[in-house]
Amino acid sequence: MIMSVTSSKSLDELDQDFRKVVQRHKFGVLNVLDLKQTLGNKGIVLERECRVYDICNPQAASTALNTDMSVSVVLPCRVSVYQDGQTLTIATVKPTDLMKATDLNGVSELATEIEREVFTMMREGLRTKRRRF
User: Fold this and answer.
1) Is residue 132 included in any domain, yes or no?
2) pTM as predicted
């Protein structure tokens, strides 16, 4: 199942706010794949914006990997931000569903905790306000 929220922020504003929220939750942004730019560099036109963020909590990843190294097939967490008309959609596949789909054992409790954190970060990225002076 996909969890998603929408935003009326600009892509750059959402990018900045999401990165701050991720850091505040002790996760890190490992990589951002700008699909529109990447495909454009290959001569393929993608009409809408789409960025995919690989995010990770190092402590949780270490715990999961030490429990079952095959959990590496679903790490890091991926959050997609894509243009949907005039709004942006922020979406991810539920970590608990990934664990079920891959039959990984011993990490379901951790997946539930990470899922809650990731969805909280997605919502908080929408609410971050900038102070105007």
Assistant:
1) no
2) 0.88
Phi, psi torsion values for 84, nearest 5 degrees: -135, 85
How far is residue 55's CA from residue 78's CA, in Å, rounded to a whole number?
Answer: 6
Work out the number of other CB atoms within 10 angstroms of the CB of residue 101.
Answer: 11
Structural domain boundaries enclosing 26 = 2-127
DSSP string, 28-52: EEEEEEEHHHHHHHTT---SS-EEE
Tally of CB atoms within 10 A around 103: 7
Contact between 80 and 92 under an 8 Å Cβ cutoff? The reply is yes
How many structural domains comprise the chain? 1
Per-residue model confidence as pLDDT tens digits over 5-45: 999 899 999 999 999 999 999 999 999 999 999 999 999 99
Indicate which CATH number applies to the domain containing 34.
3.30.310.70
